[in-house]
Fold this sequence. Notes:
Elements: H1 2-13, H2 44-58
Amino acid sequence: STTGLRNRISQHIDEGPKGTCAIHLSHWFDRKYSIQILVYDEPGAVLQIIEDDLSDSLKPAFGKKGANTT
């Protein structure tokens, strides 16, 4: 959902509740940064394949591969 995405981005920027697992970009950067959001209209299983492929291609320094188990 859009609200869920906005909340999660806020958490990663460092505006979330204390103890939330997030990158907290404001502690890493004191300048502007950009966030790219890709939107797909696909079932969850297909989205997971896309996310894993992006992770393989981009080699992010943070995050995990695979579905969330919570």
